[in-house]
Each structure stands twice: as C-alpha cells, then as structure tokens.
Amino acid sequence: MIERQLQPLLHELVGVVFAPTSALGDATGQIRPTGVQGVFHADARVLSRAELRIDERELEGLTRGDDGPHGAHFVSLARWLGDPTPDPTVRVDRLRRATRNGLTEELRIVSTATVGVRATVTIDLGCDLAPIEVVKSGGAAAALEAKTGQPGMLTWSGTGITVTVTAPGADVLAGGERAITPRLVWPVDLPPGGEMVLRWQLTVDDPRAVVVGPVGEPEWSRPEVAADDRRLVRLLDRSLDDLRGLRLAETGAPGDVFLGAGVPWFLTLFGRDSLWAARMMLPLGTDLAAGTLRVLARRQGTRFDPTTGEAPGKILHELRRHELALPDHGLRLPPAYYGTVDATMLWVNLLHDAWRWGMPAEQIEPLLPHLEAALRWLGEHADPDGDGLVEYVDTTGHGLSNQGWKDSGDAVRFHDGSLATAPIVLAEVQGYAHEAAVNGAALLDAFGRPDADRWREHAAALVGRFRRSFWVDGRHGPQPALALDRDKRPVDSLTSNIGHLLGTGLLDLDEEAQVAHLLTTDTMAAGFGLRTMSSDDAGFSPLSYHCGSIWTHDTAIVLGGLARAGHREAALGLADGLLTAAEAFDYRMPELYGGDDRALVNRPVPYPAACRPQAWAAAGAVLLLQAATGLYPDVPGGTVRLAPLAGAELGAVSAHGLRVANTPVHVAVDRTGQATATGLPAPLTPTLPTQRRHPIPQPH
C-alpha cells in the first residue's frame, strides 16, 4: 500500500504569534520534531524542536493559558522530585512568548518540598529551516548542524537565514551526534521551599523576508465593551489580542500595516483576506484600511503575465519569499501571485467604506488613480468572454483552479455532487462587482473624477444579467445558484456564497428576503454558524474545507449583511452560533470548523488543519460588535444610521471607543433595543431605521 503524504493536523496545538514569528507546540509546551510543530518566521521553520526534560524525564502537564497577547503559559509537575507525599511539591511553569524576530522562554522551577531538590534541566533543540509549503504538504527537511560560539550560544544558518539561541548559565552540548540535536543543560540545586528561573532566547536574522513586524501600537482603537452576553466581550478581547499579533508590513515600507492572513500557513500578505479583515475592522478606525489599501496599490498589476495571473489594474492574491510549490496538489505559485477573481473589487469596496467611516481626503486622493485602474480591470479584463459577468480560469495548469474565497479544487459543485468546469462565474463575485461599480462611481463623483455614469450603467446591466442567469428552483423555493459553469449552466447547489450578495445592491428587497429565508433553513444553519454548503447537497461533508464546514468570517459577513438589511431573527441565529462556537474554542476562533448538526454533536468539531489565529476570523468579532450596536456611518453624507441587533434576545450592549472620522464614539443599546450614540463628530446626526416587512419572492 502506498503511504499518503498528508497535511499535518494542528487543532490540538498551542500557538503564540507576534508576526512574522509564530510557534506551535503541544498542550504540555513541548515542541516536537513532528508534523507542523515548530517556530516559524516569515515562511520558514526556524526551530523544529524544543523538548524540555528534567533528569531525562518528561514532565506531567497540568494546564495551559495565555500569557499576554503573544504568549502562552504551561504548568507541569515533576512528581518524582521533592517530598514523597500525594501532593506534588515540585512545579514547573514554562512561559513562552513570541517576539517579532524570535521567541523567549522562561522556566520557573518552584519547590514547596521540605527537603532540598537536585536535578538537571535539559532542552533538546533542532533546526531544519523547512519552507512552510514543505511542512504543509506533510514533508520533512533534514535537521541542520548547530555551531557553537560564545558560552551558552548556538547558531544555525542556511538559505540566507541565521538562527541564534542564547541560554545564560547553560552548558551547551553540540558535538558529535549532538550536532543536529544540541542540548542546553542547567544544574538545579534548590533548598527547601526554593525556586529558580532559567531563560533562553531564539533570535532570527532574515534579511530576505518579504514581510516584517511593524513597530508601535496597533492602528485601531480598543473599545471598552460591556454586554449582557459576556461571551461577546470575551470574544472581542481575545480577537483583538490575536489581531495585534498578526500585524505585518512589507519589507521596506514599515509604515503601511496590514493583517497577515493566519497561523501557520498564511502569515503573509493575502489580498482577499487582508482586505476583508481591514473592512471588518473599520468600526475601530480607518488607519488599518489605509495601510492595507496602500500596500496592495503598490503591487497593483500593470501588465499581462499569464504565469503570475497579473493584469493591468488587478490586485494581488498573495506574496511569498519564493515560489510556493505543492506538487501533490498540482500547485506552483510564483512569489507574487495574482490568481484571485475578487480582491480587485474588494479593494474598491474597502476604499469606499473607509471613506464612509471618515478616512481623510488626503489619504484617499493618492489612491484614486489605483481606483480607476481597478475599475478598468473590472470593465475590460474581468469578463474574457464578453457576456457581462465576471469569471475566472487558471490558464497555467498549476495555479489555483478556483479563485474565489472558496479556492479549493472541489469547491464548486452541482447539487448532484459533480464538479463544475471552468471558466467559473461565481454568484458572490457578481455582487462584489456590482457593489464596486456603484461604490467606485460614488467616489469618482465625490472627488471630481470622470466616468461615474459609466459604472452606474455597468452596475444596472449586471442586475438584469444576474437575475436572468442565476436564479433556479430549489427545495426551499427560488435560490441563486452558486455559480455558472463553462457552458453557463447554473451550478445549483445551495451555499453560503449567496449570503455575500446581501447589501451589494445586486438583489431587490424581495430577493434579499428569500436569500435570508434560505440561509435560515436547517440545511444551512443547524450547526454552530452558517454551513458553506447545504446538507441536502450531494457534495456536503461537515469536514470538507468548503463544502459543508463552517467558516467564522463567512458566518460573520452574512450575519452582518442580514443585520444591515433588517433580517433580525436570521442574524441573531448566526450570532448565537458564533458565540457558542467561540466559547468552545476558548474565544480564539479558528479559520473554520465542522458543520455538524447541533443535535448530533453538542460542541463544534474542529477542522484539524485550520489556521488559528486567523485574521478575518478574529476580525469577525468586530463585525459582530458592529451588528450588535448597529452603527452605520456615512461621514460624507453627514448621517449615522443606528439599527442595533442587540436588545431583547442578545441583551444590552455598550461600546466606548468606536471611531467615526477618527473621533471616539460611544454607542449604548438597552434591553429593549433602544440605541443612543454620543460623541459623534459634527455635523453627523443619527437616524433610526424604519421597520420593513420582507415578503418571499416568487421564482423568476
């Protein structure tokens, strides 16, 4: 039997992150030379082993917890030491903290014994400098030989990276067989009731990295939130800590900060992920949006290159230090890869929404030429066959076969489970395109640029094309198809993609009401959030990456769309799913998790290879807070709409320190749903929504 080379599991590992550094180890604090365990720095594993022992024995783990936004605290016992009583008398606390260029560990050995304790503490280390794609594919790299220098010091080097470990007071064993598994050794001699603290530090010199950790504090505010449902407060606190650790900048441009997509696979610039995360974070300020827009504008496409997918005006998909090759998946992506169908429209929509939240004109104006280039891409290059719909196809044979947010190879399936053939026309992408055309026109008008009418006409035409091409009959009534295939046949599965159409203007009120109805059926919403695919579809699997699992950001985006459109009950159902899942995951939301029915499994099932933390999953907590408070500003228009989700079901919510036009704002919602906003910058005036009935439409 041929043994498969599988992507390693990581759902039970404990991570710390201070981008571009992250570390993953087991629940006891050990970093073992297996799977995805290790310390990573900008797409390379810089430490593959850090195993602690006392007297050549492993400790017994008790518990673990957080140690600030970038650290973890492990508590273990050495029960063979100390007094021979049922109670343990020698305890070891291992405090691990990520830094921008490495890692520190502190070992606190505490004795409450009535006798002295003598022991030898050792840490076995290893370094393989394995590229992240080798680790992700389940591969391995040979351990490198360590070099010794000054007392208590080890170094490894290769591929332009130098890794250094310093351990004050430790003896270093690195000769002979120990060259690839060097050991740090400390003698311990504790008096009765004594304690000792040992420290070691990892530093990385990586001049070829394409991303760096920015200096200074986060670009966003940290609001003071009170809520009847304390899960919301805990989720927001943990998420903001995680987002702090995911901040990145490009090498050479440290002032423009964006969010790296996620640990461990995607801790770099990803157009779609970074744009969505920045958009969700707008209630906390526009500075992150501005940095994200600028860094992607600098890499906006200027020419046609089928190898990279670059085209004039197109926004980048991902950035790596070298080619990303996953042979088992048929992937070979260049360092700067443009294989995304939606990032260009999302860039336009982030620029527009940041403007609505009060991003200053002097930050917007330099980006207007990039806006015009993005719109030209939408009008001239996003529709190769000229039918008025945005589509994609990988022409290289080694790029991403699917280039929407559901980018796995089997993501676009018909109701019967069969795969759609490219070129693919995704439903939600048409919504993004409509929204970008309308939003782009608004920006062009506001800043005195030409062609706004062209883009309004483009958007109007897209409405008719979508209505004629996408609506099909399903079990629960008419539904937008997931996509159109090569022959323009509707891909008739029911998926979460249609929830992204809410608020884009592509649907009328009746159509939005039907989409809300579809998303609240048990086939879609019976888990802890919104399933990516209906359980009625043949391709459904609760642990499929994109065909039945639940993605945190996807649920948050759809929840936000439902809340803005006034579909309160539907939004509240998804909010409860997210908050229940958050509690199960200790409030560090994973990229995705299983789509099992709540009646079958009473807690969310982890997806074993999900990134955690992950930017748009963590930023979903801010979107949930925005929906709860109902704060929807239009600074250029001089108004703020208050339409809170909080109230009788979700409970009261209060948030101090939301930011509108760089001004701190306080929003409070009582248990009846009555909202007030104070501190709004002049001349903004709040308005309250009117109640609307949402009839279910008939088939088109």
Structure description:
The protein is 25% helix and 26% strand. The chain has 14 helices and 37 strands. Strands 6-7-8-9-16-13-12-11 form an 8-stranded antiparallel β-sheet, with no helix packed on it. It is globular. Strand 8 (90-99) and strand 9 form a beta hairpin. With 700 residues, it is α+β, with helices and mostly antiparallel strands. It comes from Micromonospora luteifusca. Residues 673-700 are annotated as: Disordered.
Write the layout of secondary structure elements.
Layout lengths: L13 E5 L2 E5 L12 E4 L2 E4 L1 E6 L5 E7 L4 E7 L12 E10 L2 E10 L5 E10 L5 H5 L10 E2 L4 E6 L2 E6 L4 E3 L9 E8 L4 E11 L5 E2 L11 E4 L2 H16 L1 E4 L2 E7 L11 H10 L6 H12 L19 E2 L4 E3 L4 E3 L2 E2 L5 H14 L4 H4 L3 H13 L44 E2 H20 L5 H19 E4 L2 E4 L2 E2 L5 E2 L17 H11 L2 H4 L24 E2 H13 L3 H17 L7 E2 L21 H15 L1 E4 L4 E4 L10 E8 L2 E7 L5 E4 L6 E3 L13
Parallel strand pairs: 33-37
Antiparallel strand pairs: 1-2, 2-3, 3-4, 5-10, 6-7, 7-8, 8-9, 9-16, 10-15, 11-12, 12-13, 13-16, 14-15, 17-19, 18-34, 19-20, 21-24, 22-23, 25-28, 26-27, 28-29, 30-31, 32-33, 34-35, 35-36
Helix pairs in contact: 2-14, 3-4, 3-5, 3-14, 4-5, 5-7, 5-8, 7-8, 8-9, 12-13, 12-14
